[in-house]
Amino acid sequence: MTENTEGVKEVKGFMPRAVRYAQRVDDDFAAGISELYKAIWSERENGLQMKEKHLISFSIACSKNNAESATKILERLKKFGATREEIEDAMMIATWTSGVQYFTDFSIVILEEMDRLGF
Known about the structure:
Blueprint: H1 3-12, H2 17-25, H3 27-41, H4 50-63, H5 67-79, H6 84-98, H7 100-117
Helix pairs in contact: 1-3, 2-3, 4-5, 4-6, 5-7, 6-7
């Protein structure tokens, strides 16, 4: 990996699959994707904090009925000190934007993972 792609680990906390896959295609492509990750996930003055970014990502994953992604994001939310109430609010927002059926589909998986993680 190049220095440019390695910087993503510092910002995101791990090497995203998209960067690893892009590296196999082309170094410049991987560098471009790395810069996208860094632009999104770096903390900026007066910008969203990491916990807020992950709450938004969590809500979007839930609204798209992507329980696998949402449960992975829960681990990041735990790391950044999110409360159970904040996560429940994000779940309710996902329900508002996507509908009750999606809540029914993703909620049990998320609630069980929240309990496992100690929220």
